[in-house]
Design brief:
By secondary structure, the chain is of the alpha/beta class. It has helices at 12-26, 48-53, 70-88, 100-111, 131-142, 151-159, 172-181, 212-215, 218-229, 244-252, 268-277, 286-295, 324-331, 349-365, and strands spanning 3-9, 31-37, 61-62, 92-96, 116-119, 145-148, 166-168, 189-190, 197-198, 205-208, 235-238, 260-263, 281-283, 299-302, 317-320. Helix 10 (244-252) links the parallel strand 11 and strand 12. It comes from Adlercreutzia wanghongyangiae.
Length: 366
């Protein structure tokens, strides 16, 4: 009897990880995968574009759950995912990362006694104010199998007495970056201010900052933009839909923002191109920190806590506050790249993940 795996995704980084693993699962005889999209990232440029360009199988269902508080979103997802799991009867559930979608799926599957594989297990910021930290910890403690992207993540799980269920798989995002870099394409940038095409400069900085603490207040957004305006080359800044109104208001309020290209969100292949060709990256994204590290491009992370300490070596990734002085100081720190240091695996994480979830699903059928 064929085994059935349900993969639950809801946000951009999960689409990327799922792409490389889904391609491996597709090649295994007797394995069927059903992708369920919670709808957490609902904008076409934040969602459908990724499925199209990464050739991911279309989701069996899009639950259309987005917006609201963390509790509201998670509750609605939990209810909807439970119904899908009851109806589809998967042999195992495959989860990625630390979103509300991940936590909701973990709770639904655990209560239905469906085995859970959690990819990117053991990542810790040690910050209780970070909503994703709650998602990570809760998911790890109910999951059946924990797959860690780095040895440090594995050690975190062992410290929490979860070592018996955990192993090192490597990072599927690294697999994806290596695989798709050869297909990366120069983006067709479009301004969010006037809808006109924007030419990509020969030299540029790549910026993605969308968290509430960095773009949700006038002071924080102002500090970020002041830093970008002071750079020696234009900053390409794809603006997250939730921050668009604040950015437009800031620009329309006056000031010279000619050094910042405020553009529509870009697809994954376009983002990979921007990472590989940028002078530096400025971000608050856990995924983009890692991609800059893979590419050997210096990164400044605008956060109060470390997400991936493995990248914070030799000046390669520096924390900064959302202020002009802090960001520019971090960007001025020189980096040194040790080509032999690669804590995220050997680029074969997808095979290990697929093998693990299939084995767990087959065991469930016995």
């Amino acid at each position: 009897m064929a085994v059935k795996i349900m993969t639950v995704v809801g946000a951009r980084p999960q689409f990327i990880k799922a792409a490389v693993v889904s391609h491996v699962l597709e090649s295994i005889e007797g394995v069927g995968e059903e992708i369920v999209h919670t709808g957490q990232h609902y904008d076409a440029n934040m969602s459908q574009t990724f499925f199209d360009e990464l050739d991911i199988p279309e989701p069996k269902v899009n639950l259309g759950v987005s917006g609201g508080s963390h509790g509201q979103m998670t509750a609605r997802m939990l209810e909807a995912l439970e119904s899908e799991m009851v109806a589809r009867r998967p042999d195992a559930v495959l989860l990625y990362g630390d979103t509300n979608s991940t936590l909701a799926a973990a709770l639904a599957a655990a209560k239905l006694h469906i085995p859970i594989v959690h990819v990117e297990a053991g990542a810790r910021t040690h910050s209780a104010t970070n909503p994703e930290e709650i998602n990570r910890i809760c998911t790890d403690h109910v999951a059946t199998k924990l797959l860690a992207c780095t040895k440090d993540n594995l050690e975190n799980l062992q410290k929490e007495n979860l070592g018996a269920r955990a192993e090192f798989s490597g990072d599927p995002m690294y697999d994806a970056f290596v695989h798709y870099s050869s297909a990366a394409q120069q983006p067709a940038l479009v301004s969010i201010l006037d809808g006109e095409a924007v030419e990509l400069p020969a030299e540029f900085y790549y910026v993605t900052c969308h968290r509430e603490e960095n773009a949700g207040t006038e002071e924080a957004l102002g500090g970020l933009l002041d830093a970008l305006c002071a750079l020696d080359a234009p900053a390409v800044y794809p603006v997250h839909p939730r921050n668009r109104a604040a950015v437009r208001q800031r620009v329309e309020g006056g000031g010279d923002f000619s050094n910042v290209l405020f553009v529509e969100p870009v697809g994954y292949l376009e983002s990979v191109y921007l990472v590989n060709h940028a002078k530096q990256v400025v971000t608050d994204s856990g995924g983009l920190q890692r991609e800059a590290f893979y590419a050997g491009v210096k990164c400044t992370t605008v956060l109060d806590f470390e997400v991936w300490p493995e990248t914070m070596v030799d000046g390669r990734n520096i924390l900064a506050k959302p202020s002009r002085e802090s960001i520019l100081a971090a960007m001025s720190v020189p980096q040194s790249v040790d080509e032999g240091y690669q804590p995220f695996g050997d680029g074969k994480a997808a095979e290990r993940i697929a093998s693990c979830v299939v084995e767990l699903a087959e065991r469930q059928q016995l």
